[in-house]
Design goal:
The protein is 14% helix and 27% strand. It is α+β, with helices and mostly antiparallel strands and 288 residues long. It binds 2-acetamido-2-deoxy-beta-D-glucopyranose (NAG) (4 copies).
C-alpha cells in the first residue's frame, strides 16, 4: 500500500475517534497496518459473514481465537460455553418509558439495532484483518460517534433520536452494509435486534439464517471508563442472554453476550407517559 494511502486512512480514523462528544479514555486506538487497513481480507480461522450464510452456521468451523472481554472489575458475566458463532457490532437505540416526570421514573422497554459482522476483525482471529486490542475495544464507540444511526430516525421535541414507530428499520427487511473511515471494506449487515410485540428480546441474524429469541440471564455494570454516548448518559450494562425456551430460536444459537457498550443509558424523565430513545452501540457475541 502507498504511504499516502496509509496516511489518509490513519487520518480518517483519528478524525472518527477524536470527535468532541467522545468521552472515552485511553486516546487514539493503535493505528498500525494490521489494525484497520485490511478488513476486506477474510481471516482464515474465523467465520466471515459470507461463509456463515453460505453454510449452516451451527456446523461451521469453530472460531477459536477471540476471547470474550471482561469489564475488569466487580462480578463478571459467567464464562461462555458453546462455540463462538459470530461477533457483531450493534448500532441503534435503547428505549425507556417515563411513568412520571421524575428523574428516577424511567424503565427500560427495549431496543432496536442493526447488527454488523465484525468477526474477522477480532484480535486473536489469526487473520490479516485482526485489529489490535485497543482498536477492537474502541470499535463500538467509533461506530456510535462516527456513523449515522441505521434506523428511520424521525425524532420529536422530547427525544431527538426516536425512530419511526410504524417503520423503524429500513424497508425491505434488509440493511445496508456499514462503510466506515479506516476500514478497507464495509461491515456486512448480518441482522437486527429488536423486542417483539410481547417485549421479548430477539436477534434475527438474517445473513446467517439464525434467530435467537432470548431472555436476560445476567448483567454487570459497564466499566467505569466506558463511553457515555452521544447524550452523555452513560453506557448500558454488559449482559448475557439465553434462548428463552419458547421455541422461536433456530440455527443453533443458545446465548449472546453484550459487551463493550457505548451510550444507551436513560436520560432523566421530564414528562409522564413518554418514550425516550437513546443511541447506543455494543458488541454482541453469539454462541451455539
Ligand atoms: C499496535 O499493534 C501492533 C500490531 O498489532 C502491535 O505489535 C503493537 O505492539 C501495538 N502497539 C501498541 C502501543 O499497542
Ligand atoms: C422504541 O422506540 C421507537 C421509537 O423511537 C419505536 O419505533 C420502537 O418500536 C420502540 N421499540 C421498543 C421495543 O420499545
Ligand atoms: C447467571 O444467570 C443464571 C440464570 O439466571 C443464574 O443461574 C446464575 O447464577 C447467574 N450467574 C451469575 C454469575 O450471576
Ligand atoms: C399516563 O397513562 C395512563 C394510562 O394510559 C393514564 O392512566 C395516566 O393518567 C397518564 N398520566 C399522565 C400524567 O398523563
Amino acid at each position: 500500500m502507498l504511504p499516502q494511502t496509509l496516511f489518509v486512512l490513519a487520518s480518517a480514523l483519528s478524525a472518527v475517534t477524536a470527535g468532541p462528544v467522545r468521552k472515552r479514555c485511553g486516546g487514539k486506538p493503535n493505528v498500525s497496518s494490521s489494525t484497520v487497513l485490511e478488513a476486506s481480507t477474510p481471516a482464515s480461522t474465523v467465520v466471515s459473514a459470507t461463509s456463515a450464510s453460505a453454510s449452516s452456521s451451527a456446523s461451521a468451523a469453530p472460531i477459536t481465537g477471540p476471547r470474550l472481554p471482561s469489564t475488569g472489575a466487580g462480578t463478571q458475566l459467567p464464562a461462555a460455553s458453546g462455540q463462538l458463532q459470530h461477533i457483531v457490532v450493534g448500532h441503534g437505540i435503547q428505549n425507556y418509558t417515563c411513568a412520571r416526570a421524575d428523574s428516577a421514573a424511567s424503565s427500560s422497554t427495549g431496543a432496536l439495532a442493526v447488527l454488523y459482522d465484525i468477526t474477522a476483525l477480532a484480535p486473536g482471529g489469526g487473520g490479516a484483518a485482526s485489529m489490535s486490542e485497543a482498536a477492537w475495544a474502541a470499535l463500538a464507540g467509533d461506530v456510535l460517534h462516527g456513523t449515522a444511526i441505521p434506523l428511520n430516525i424521525v425524532g420529536n421535541a422530547l427525544t431527538p433520536y426516536a425512530a419511526d414507530v410504524a417503520a423503524p428499520f429500513a424497508a425491505g427487511g434488509r440493511d445496508a452494509d456499514l462503510a466506515m473511515a479506516g476500514l478497507a471494506a464495509p461491515l456486512k449487515a448480518l441482522g437486527r435486534h429488536y423486542f417483539d410485540a410481547a417485549g421479548v428480546p430477539t436477534f434475527d441474524l438474517y445473513g446467517a439464517d439464525q434467530m435467537l429469541v432470548a431472555k436476560k440471564l445476567n448483567d454487570t455494570a459497564a466499566p467505569a471508563g466506558a463511553d457515555r454516548g452521544i447524550l452523555d448518559t452513560g453506557a448500558v450494562a454488559w449482559l448475557r442472554l439465553g434462548d428463552n425456551g419458547a421455541g422461536g430460536s433456530r440455527g443453533g444459537l443458545s446465548t449472546v453476550y453484550r459487551v463493550y457498550t457505548s451510550g444507551g443509558a436513560s436520560i432523566a424523565c421530564t414528562e409522564a407517559n413518554t418514550t425516550i430513545s437513546v443511541p447506543y452501540t455494543a458488541q454482541y457475541w453469539f454462541y451455539s
